[in-house]
């Protein structure tokens, strides 16, 4: 079976087709938002009063590693967002092919029996030394459809 994946660039405000990603920073936190032309202009208009009175901070060249890690995190987030959207689309398609009776009835006819045994699992102990300067890299979660 062939599968076609379509990733749409959508406006984060209203879900319409987006035309650009805008990046801004408030109190040291960098934000990115995908916007259509109307919303992008509206954001620029809102910020213009403050931009004209603000001081521009020079770009920091000393911390290229942090910049690279931020860029990698943004790319990972974009990939995760695409995977989530794909999984949601597959779920929508799967549910649209089910009879209405299957879609609305999510109750279990055989509820679970009473719990009779509890197993305690000891937490995993870390063997390698901790490095507080660098957080471990985590692999992004993988999503699958039903």
Structure summarized in a few sentences:
The chain is an alpha+beta fold and 146 residues long. The protein has helices at 37-53, 64-96, 100-104, and strands spanning 20-26, 29-35. It has a two-stranded antiparallel sheet.
Feature tags:
146 residues; alpha+beta; Wheat Germ Agglutinin (Isolectin 2), domain 1; two-stranded antiparallel ribbon; Lsr2-like_dimerization; Lsr2_dim_dom; DNA binding; Lsr2 protein
CATH architecture assignment name of the domain at 1-57: 2-Layer Sandwich
Radius of gyration: 23 Å
Shape: extended
Q: Any low-confidence stretches, pLDDT <50, length ≥5?
A: none
Could you estimate the helical fraction of the residues in percent?
25-40%
Structural classification? alpha+beta
Biggest pleated-sheet summary: 2 strands, antiparallel
Would you give the CATH topology of the domain at 1-57? Wheat Germ Agglutinin (Isolectin 2), domain 1
User: What's the count of strands?
Assistant: 2
Mean pLDDT reading: 76
Description of the structure:
The chain is of the alpha+beta class. Among the domains are: 1-57, 2-Layer Sandwich (Wheat Germ Agglutinin (Isolectin 2), domain 1); 60-96. The protein contains 3 helices and 2 strands; from the N terminus they run ββααα. The protein has a two-stranded antiparallel ribbon with strand order 1-2. Strand 1 and strand 2 (29-35) form a beta hairpin. The longest helix is centred in the middle third of the chain and has 33 residues, at 64-96. The protein is extended, with a radius of gyration of 23 Å. It starts with 19 loop residues before the first strand and ends in a 42-residue tail after the last helix. Residues 78-89 have a biased composition (Polar residues). One of its GO terms (molecular function) is DNA binding. Residues 1-56 form the Lsr2 dimerization domain. It holds the Pfam family Lsr2. Residues 54-77 have a biased composition (Basic and acidic residues).
């Amino acid at each position: 079976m062939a599968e076609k994946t379509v990733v749409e660039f959508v406006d984060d405000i209203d879900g319409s087709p987006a035309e650009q990603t805008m990046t801004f920073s408030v109190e040291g936190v960098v934000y990115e938002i995908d916007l259509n032309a109307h919303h992008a202009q509206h954001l620029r208009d809102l910020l213009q009063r403050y931009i004209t009175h603000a001081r521009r901070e020079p770009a920091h060249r000393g911390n290229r590693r942090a910049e690279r890690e931020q860029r990698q995190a943004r790319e990972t987030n974009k990939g995760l967002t695409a995977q989530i959207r794909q999984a949601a689309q597959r779920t929508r398609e799967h549910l649209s092919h089910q009879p209405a009776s299957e879609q609305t009835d999510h109750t279990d006819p055989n509820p679970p029996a009473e719990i009779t045994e509890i197993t305690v699992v000891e937490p995993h102990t870390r063997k390698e030394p901790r490095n507080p300067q660098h957080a471990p890299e985590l692999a992004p979660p993988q999503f699958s459809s039903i």
